[in-house]
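S1.2 Input.
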Amino acid sequence: MTVSGAQNFPADQILAASGLKTGEVVTAPQIQAAADRLAALGIFLSVNYRYASKDDSISIEFQVKQAPTYPLSFDNFPWFTDAALGDAIRAQIGLFTGVAPGGGTMIDEITGVLEKLLASRNVRGKVTHQLVEQADGDGRMMQFRVDGPALLVQSVRFGDSLATNSEQLKDRISDIQGHPYSRFAAEIFENEHVRPTYAAGGFLHAQIGPPEPHLTANAADPNDAGVDLLIPVTPGPRYTWKGAAWQGNTVFTSAVLNGTLAMKPGDVANGMKIEAEWQRIQSEYARHGYLDVKITPQPQYDDVAHQVFYRVNIEEGPQYRMGKMVITGLSLDAGNRLRKQWLTAPGQVFDKGYYEHMLQELAKPSRDVFGEMPIHYTEFGHWLRPNTSQHTVDVLLDFK
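S1.3 Output.
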């Protein structure tokens, strides 16, 4: 028996999961049943087979196409480390490589292993699973949770003095302390609050997390434990700003772009300000009609002088002009009044900054726009419809 098309799973384990064994008598329905078992695992989009017979033996090739797989996250299993959970799953599921498919019998098998582990600790609860976005936004993951008695976070500690002494973090600890322990919630806390604290201080290579739960066990009842949460932090060096070099820019000169930067050489390289600078430059391009501009900053770190320098590539794209304005939900007179008040005429360079300003004005009926006209609406929808061939953009406004 052989396998083709499997890059991430060992062929011998795939064959073992098929249920067929060399040397045994086999029938055509048994071969089909083996292919069905492999397909049901969820790790393959398709499973086909072909065979060739000679005398009283048969050679079988399973042809598989792999399905998407996702990293695993164990959301509220503070009784076990990730390594212990992974080892237990790997010991009982031969095809487990540290990732899981989006569905299928392998997910059911993983769930069964986790429930047995909980039972071994006398923990009451049912294991559920779902695909969720990772806390840092870097793709999806298969999250396993225990639906049972909640273990409350009793304390939160940090592995570095900057976080420990941060008044801002002290004000936000209540986001997770006193709530049921959730690794996902702790990771969101790290990304939304701890990481920005270090980025703002110039610690651009700070290593934060993963969160480490420690049980405050009740020996009489494992379900009545609490969690002390440690968020590890290794800050690394503090970087200063060295400057930026620009490529691909024609609308704005490099001197103009450098002049827009708030940081000067020698300043602390505030990571939050740096990200804001790229967004501000993109917004400035959009004010001049360049709606497709792509800004790609590439940091270059000097780990001796602890400086960071950016090479920024700009793909400006075409300049868009104002197309049609499509208004629905207003009377003819009110629509005409709005068109007269709109300062960007068809054919003029589209200013996205002005467009966003007008959206704020129109969020509710405005006398500045409609004067004394009796205008009433409670909902306001808005869309841009770019024409990439003519480089125009239509504005669609819907009032309800």
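S1.4 Remarks. The chain has twelve helices and 18 strands.
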